[in-house]
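ok so for the tutorial part 2 we go from a plain amino acid sequence to predicted structure tokens. step 1 is just haveing the sequence, like this:
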Amino acid sequence: MTAPSTSPPTVDRHAMIIAGRAVPATSGEWLTTYDPSTGEPLAEVPRGTAPDVDRAAISAHEAYRSPEWSRRAPHERGRALARLSRLLLNDIDQLAVMETLDSGKPLSQGKRDVQLAARYFEYYAGICDKLEGSHLPLDAEHMAVTAKEPYGVVGVIVPWNAPLNQAARAAAPALTVGNSVVLKPAEETPLTAIRLGKLALEAGLPPGILNVVTGLGEEAGQALVEHPLVRRISFTGSVETGRLVAKTAADRIIPVGLELGGKSANIIFPDADLDTVAASVLRTMTHSAGQICSAATRLLVHTDALNEVIARIVATLAKVTVGPGMRDPMLGPLISRTQLDRVLGYIKLGGQEGAISVTGGARYSDGDLARGYFVQPTVFTRVDHEMRIANEEIFGPVVCVLPFTTEDEALEIANNTPYGLAAGIYTRDISRALTLARDLEAGQVFINEYQAGGVETPFGGYKQSGWGREKGLAALDHYSQLKTTIIRL
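step 2 — the prediction. this is what the tokens look like for a chain of 489 residues:
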């Protein structure tokens, strides 16, 4: 939630980072961000527009073409990224507070996101000097070699649910292969991205290699996708905006990575460890208040286990603590009034469609919670897979329970969605689990523990959940282009 402001500041102002300097917007305008736990103003950041994106792109292009980065010895690039990782960890307390106040997530979750951001830079720092090409045998008179090369300027647009984590997820592999980056954080949560830009300079990244431009998506974000010096785009966000980004990238004929929405399924069989199931549902509903694109918001439960699974989930959710992120509860607020209204609208729709809310179903309205954007964890039963709440991404602490009787029926329901980001399977039968994992239309499949893995495990979707892969070695293929050189001997 943001609003343009030209009045004298009543909260802290944070400049954006362009060409190694902290600068305001060319227009002199500022955006106000709000604390979702209270709805009160939190900070002001520059309202960057096309001229500011132009400054950042030119700076990134010049820095990329200089010998200080793309032609720097790979191990030296790696050392700079490793220093950035250490600086993030050294600054973890301040960054976690920034992330918590900005996004509303509990403090321990904010701290975990900082640790993950640091881990991305640590992981990719170790790969900088290990990017190898290949030798291709041709004939007695010729040989050929391949090499991974950078694109140049990479535009990175990240959402508000995990601002620092996702900024690092894209920037680290892009920088590893020698690109420069212009980062556009979400207008709701820009503070840790600005801090990341400052720490990158302290770590020894040359000025202009990592620029941070704050602003609105339809202004700064669109200008970034359209800029002629930007050679690749990484976008994480909604399907609607991702479609617009892809169309613009197609007009410019530049590659784009899209990590979009999800309506992921957890498939529960009677032989599953139901305590683990309940714990996984708890994580899905409380991590970032359910505002996670890969959250398992469809719970497909075998009819033989249906009543027991529902009872355990209800009992587990009854223990959820809720409050402002700085109190470090289990559940924090949604990001904004807009998102609050969206989630409450879907909860109302669920009742109208005939689903039954067995727990939750309303906004928290007691005491201090009434000031923020807090929604009760809500579990719907008697859900048909044709209902809107079972098909559309709600992006809040809402889960739909859908019964099934056979494996084929479970697979049909799980795949009956335009999304394909992630899925989970809970069973002690490993043959059943691996067969289902093979047939599920999802980019990541978890067996007996949801959202396992780490920075090493490639992440991305099928169908309308996007294309391309972040994380792991696979990300390097998307932030580099392959050159083949053929030599006559």
